[in-house]
Amino acid sequence: MTNEAGILLESGTNELEIIEFEVNNNKFGINVLKVREIIQPVPLTPIPHAHPNVLGIIQLRGEVLPVISMEKALNMYPTNEESKENEKFIVAEFNQQKVVFQVHHVTQIHRISWEQIEKPSNLYSVDSSHIIGVIKRETEMLLLIDFEKIVVDINPEAGIHVAKIKSLGVRERSLKRIIAAEDSPLLRKLIHETLHAAGYEQVEFFENGQDALDYLQAISKSGKNVYDEVQLVITDIEMPQMDGHHFAKRIQENEKLSKLPVIIFSSLITDDLRHKGETVGAVEQVSKPEINELVLKIDQHIL
Known about the structure:
Distance between the termini: 43 Å
Pfam families: CheW, Response_reg
Number of helices: 9
Radius of gyration: 20 Å
Keywords: Phosphoprotein
Largest sheet: 6 strands, mixed
Domain Response regulatory: 177-303
InterPro entries: Chemotax_regulator_CheV (IPR024181), CheW-like_dom_sf (IPR036061), CheW-lke_dom (IPR002545), CheY-like_superfamily (IPR011006), Sig_transdc_resp-reg_receiver (IPR001789)
Protein name: Chemotaxis protein CheV
């Protein structure tokens, strides 16, 4: 199983394909676009003093890759051996890195709309949660996992760091207005701190593309000049209700919004997927966590 089916999805349709997998008989999902392949388990080489969630490393086609136990990362161990009879390794790629996730079973692929994915309730999800979305099906629910956070928990250097902005020097951008669509509360906070440090003090955040689009459309319907109110848009790709590709497409199709530069800032920026952002009119696509690159692109394109 590879990600070829996901790549065939037309850009901007607000749909995605989810690979369903199980850990201790609980059902979870991962975006097909993050998956390079799914393989049978191979012998591991343990790493002394490694993070408890890292089982070891494997060699796959000449690359040395870390193997992360989803059972441990989700704090769902110990388990009985029967649940591991169909164990699989999910080879994933995001944030410009490859990681292998050990799961107990891979079942099927679902094609769904982002509108079907609900934001986790505050009653059972906090900033530190690994759950980024809930998919309700007829007889069950699938939980979408924040794989980026799992990796950052193991290696904090893989995340966004405000201190990196200091290398760009002093700038004055306080009059420029930006809106940003990002579903992760933690990343909203980090991006806000980073852009503020870069001189961009007026940034309005939204939890998904739908809310951000509603905001832009409300400005345009009010009779105000949108370009006086907003000078640039930043968007993630994976978001409940409306993803970043569909959001960018809706901006491009609206004659009152179409001149707004849209920068996609996502873990899903790879050579194989870059064409999707180009199709929906994004002026730039920056891979997380390259926050320096994001700021430089904002400097270049902001109206």
